[in-house]
């Protein structure tokens, strides 16, 4: 959501989450980051945006950055690179899929717990009925 909001001119103040918000927000340029579980940090960042010129500068920078980094052309290029790397085996599995253990899932894994006893009874009735038809 942070990228979408910035693309539409909103200026985010978000928790500093390494690898998440520090990627989507260019701190001090497109938005502001506050320390997690620190309300004073959030309050300070919000006060920073009280200056209309600063808010407009952040807003314009956020729109420009998202258009530059996440345009259709840029995403096409990024996906093309990823597909090329996948084809080259750069992200190969450590174990072949054919050698990975397959989970055994029985009927009880698919039928809701409350219905298991009913299904069991129906199964036994059908089995007896099928036996009667064979004789």
Comma- or semicolon-separated keywords:
Rossmann fold; single chain; 2 domains; mainly alpha; 6 helices; 135 residues
Walk me through the topology.
Blueprint: H1 2-7, E1 13-15, H2 21-24, E2 32-34, H3 39-48, H4 52-69, H5 72-87, H6 113-134
Parallel strand pairs: 1-2
Could you describe the 3D structure shown?
- With 135 residues, this protein is mostly helical.
- It has two domains: 86 residues, 3-Layer(aba) Sandwich (Rossmann fold); 30 residues, no CATH class.
- The chain is 56% helix and 4% strand.
- The chain has six helices and two strands.
- A two-stranded parallel sheet has the order 1-2.
- The protein is elongated and about 85 Å long.
- The termini are far apart.
- The mean pLDDT is 87.
